[in-house]
Amino acid sequence: MKYLIMMYPNTEVMNALSEEERNAVFQGHSEFMQKITESGEFVGTVALAGPDQSSVVCVRGGVPAVTDGPYAESKEFMGGYYLIEVEDRDRAHELAAMIPDAAVEGLGIEVRPVVFSNGASA
Questions:
Q1: What is the dihedral of CA 117, 108, 47, 74, to 10 degrees?
Q2: What pLDDT score does 65 carry?
Q3: Residue 29: per-residue pLDDT
Q4: 8 A C-beta contact, residue 42 and residue 5
Q5: Rg (CA), the chain
Q6: Do 110 and 2 contact (CB within 8 A), yes or no?
């Protein structure tokens, strides 16, 4: 079963960490990717730019309108995800707990089953 493990960083929370703590979080992602690659559970990952670089497209009356900024204002934003393939939901939760962000007060990791995918890496 495939699961999407989503990370929602909070700029205030991340800025409150020491440089050493932030570096440990970033390094932890490299270690996590190595572990799940070796176990064969890694399918893919994406790191996204911050919401200040996003845009929203709406089509009204057949005319597209593009506006700057995120779709929703929030302290948290989708910063990236891991796509994994594991035996069951418990294993997906086990892997999510290995992501360093999960251990940072004020942050969490969302785990959601994939119900449809289409593509070479999905």
A1: 100
A2: 93
A3: 95
A4: no
A5: 16
A6: no
Please tell me the pTM assigned to this model. Answer: 0.85
CA 122 – CA 35 distance, rounded (Å): 19
Work out the percent of the chain whose per-residue pLDDT is above 90.
71
Tokens of 38: 């070796």
Chain centre distance of CA 52 = 17
Please, are residues 8 and 107 in contact by the beta-carbon 8 Å criterion? yes
Sheet holding 2-7, edge to edge: 42-47, 80-85, 2-7, 109-113
- Whether 109 shows a pLDDT value over 80: the answer reads yes
* Confidence class for position 75, pLDDT limits 50, 70, 90: low
Distance, CA of 95 to CA of 33 (rounded, Å): 10
User: Dihedral through CA 34, CA 3, CA 10, CA 47, nearest 10?
Assistant: 50
Task: Give the pLDDT of residue 71.
Answer: 63
* Residue appearing with tokens 């440089």: 19
